[in-house]
Amino acid sequence: MNERYVKWHTQYLSRDFEMLVFGDGGGLPLILFPTSFGNFRQNKDFKLVDSVAGYVDAGKLTVYCPDAIDLESFYNKGIHPADRMRTHNAYENVIVGDVFDLARRECNCPRVAVSGASLGAYHAGNIAFRHPDLVSHFISLSGSFDISSFFDGYHDDNIYFNSPYEYLPNTTDPWKYGHMGIILGTGEWDNTRHETFRLSEILNSKGIQHWLDDRRWCGHDWNYWRDMLPYYLSKL
Questions:
Q1: Which of 76, 172, 186, 212 could bridge to 200 as Cys pair (CB 3.0-4.6 Å)?
Q2: What's the pLDDT at 199?
Q3: Half-sphere exposure of 177 toward its Cβ, with a 13 Å CA cutoff?
């Protein structure tokens, strides 16, 4: 695979931001988020990118692996919970304003696909549900979608509008997700399986079409995700 290291100064965080890109800017643009404590190299290091190399080499897929700042936002107990959320929102602005823009231009595509495992699936899903006009597909690998534990009991509108478990049940226009291919992957040994089922139930209650894939002999780890992601891509 063609691999590129991209670094730029982003106005949203007022600092440099890093990303790895795999492919030549053709096919479907896939934004692949890291898991908790991960960075832009994690999906390469744990060979999740390698699992979809065939699609990249065939020109069907370009994979964008942006950095994460969870240690500065959700896990940063040194700042007020409201500031943790504001930092997270700045990160979302980088993804939507910088990463999506680059991916759409390079692949000449109006929308991007998003995916991730565990907390990376939260980032992918939350952005997909908040910006459905920009997202064509959302693929969750053992998603962890409950962010309430990060804020020490504190709650405000910012947290509400970044918690899919809170805002999705109250959506009045579920039609805006109708174009999106949504795949929720989990398994019988997955310790966040209940979170995937909870999200699926909310989507069902709103008539939002999706595929819930509850796999046998599947848990919450990279070896399972390396099987899941290329399989789901084969179904698109």
A1: 212
A2: 98
A3: 22
- C-alpha 134/C-alpha 30 separation (Å) is 12
Among 49, 183, 22, 177, which residue's Cα sits nearest to residue 107?
22
- Per CATH, the architecture of 3-234 is what? 3-Layer(aba) Sandwich (3.40)
* Residue 61: predicted pLDDT: 98
CA atoms of 106 and 112, how far apart (whole Å):
11
CA torsion angle for 63, 227, 212, 104 (degrees, to 10)? 10
Residue 46 is predicted with a pLDDT of: 98
- For residue 162, which of 105, 112, 122, 205 has the smallest C-alpha distance? 122
What pLDDT does residue 232 have? 98
CA 93 to chain centre: 14
Q: Which residues contact 74 (CB under 8 A, 6 or more apart)?
A: 84, 88, 119, 147, 150
CB 83 within 8 A of CB 72: no
What's this model's pTM, rounded to 2 decimal places?
0.97
Cα(3)–Cα(56) distance, integer angstroms: 10
C-alpha span between 10 and 16 (Å, rounded): 6
Q: How far, in Å, CA of 58 to CA of 86, rounded?
A: 40
Segments in the chain below pLDDT 50: none
DSSP state of 180: -
Residues across the chain:
236
User: At residue 228, what are phi and psi to the nearest 5 degrees?
Assistant: -70, -50
- Distance (Å, rounded) from C-alpha 89 to C-alpha 137? 21
Q: How far apart are CA 73 and CA 147, in angstroms?
A: 12
